[in-house]
Amino acid sequence: MTDSKRRKSLAAASAVLGGVLALSACSGGDDKAGSGGKESQAQVDEAAAKKTSAARIKIMPKDGADNASINNAAKVTVADGTLSKVTMQTADGDSVPGTLSADKTSWKPSSQLERSTTYKLNASAKDKDGRVAHENGSFTTVAPANSFIGNFTPEDGSTVGVGMPVSINFDKAITDKKAVQAGISVNTTSGQEVVGHWFNGNRLDFRPKDYWKAGSTVTLKLNLDGVEGAKGVYGVQQKTITFKIGRNQVTTVDAASKTMKITRDGKTIKTIPISAGSPEHKTYQGQMVISEKYKETRMDGATVGFADGDGKGEYDIKDVPHAMRLSSSGTFIHGNYWGGSGIFGSANTSHGCVGIQDAKGAGDPNTPGAWFYNNSMVGDIVNVTNTGDKTIAPDNGLNGWNMDWSQWTAGSEA
């Protein structure tokens, strides 16, 4: 072999040997613990796994979610362990209190969340060997623009008259009425069938065919959380409301005889002279429900269409005593101290309200106006007859009783 060939062979062998040595140095070879070498990667991974907690934490809704429910979305659970600490805060750092289950496997906020708010959750848990696991996440609740609520009457825990409907006014127009009505139920201990009627996309009322039974209890349930009422607009309410029906009181106003008769539980308890709407300003006829009561209130004709050429009201009485609303458009039954005692029972002189003799300041309990006010409640029926005017519209106030049952049920989406 020539010297040049011999040198080339040695160089090649050296390169190969160098590569093997380099590879051996990077891989760590097959050295074992106890023989002076390092642990294998498999051994390192196995050791790390032994230190990892078996507890598996789940935060809901998922990290980064938006349009989350303000009622049931937020929740922390753990499998193969118990929760040791959960904190929830707004993006501004305000703490949200929560409740840990007795077995320490779940946590949820103690109260309803706010709309259009970002919340951050941090959770820690331990497995049976005391090893700790951590998890965190954040989400944003549904914005007002993407949600709807229903403002309802009567109030929870109230006692009302036999004519009081359940009336729900939504703050957004509902297009999927069927889905929304399916999330609402109204039941009564009297066993009466209760049906909902949509007056428009914003208002849904419920009532039985006949007046509620005296002494019964009515329950309204709103299970609207997550219900899509219109495209991209979701319900957020999850409530149960109960109210009681009081005694059965119906007042019949006869504009022709200028008297009204109060009947309670089927018996006439009082007859009172009145003054209804004048021939120029007749009072609506029909079954009307007392929706509000004011010991004193202001009545300005300009607010209900009675104004002169300068826009000033034809009347402006700042202390009308014992006033009870019968319509949204301004019909009241109220005390009257300015008309003179001679008009009651003899002349119809008002701008459309029903007036009863009363005293200025609403301080005399012996007047007919005070008696009627003190013996009436929200939800009582006032049936106005013989005025010569048209029947009040069913949606003008809480006056759906002026719609027959077939029409009422035809407006249901159940």
Automatic annotation (TrEMBL):
Residues 102-115 have a biased composition (Polar residues). GO terms for molecular function: acyltransferase activity; peptidoglycan L,D-transpeptidase activity. Residues 249-385 form the L,D-TPase catalytic domain. One of its GO terms (biological process) is peptidoglycan-protein cross-linking. The keyword Cytoplasm does not apply. InterPro entries: Big_10 (IPR041280), LD-transpeptidase (IPR050979), LD_TPept_cat_dom (IPR005490), Transpep_catalytic_dom (IPR038063). The active site is at H334 (proton donor/acceptor), C353 (nucleophile). Residues 28-53, 89-115 are annotated as: Disordered. Pathway: Glycan biosynthesis; Cell wall biogenesis; peptidoglycan biosynthesis. Residues 1-25 form the signal peptide. One of its GO terms (cellular component) is extracellular region. It holds the Pfam family Big_10. Keywords: Acyltransferase, Cell membrane, Cell shape, Cell wall biogenesis/degradation, Lipoprotein, Membrane, Palmitate, Peptidoglycan synthesis, Signal, Transferase. This is L,D-TPase catalytic domain-containing protein. It comes from Streptomyces tsukubensis.
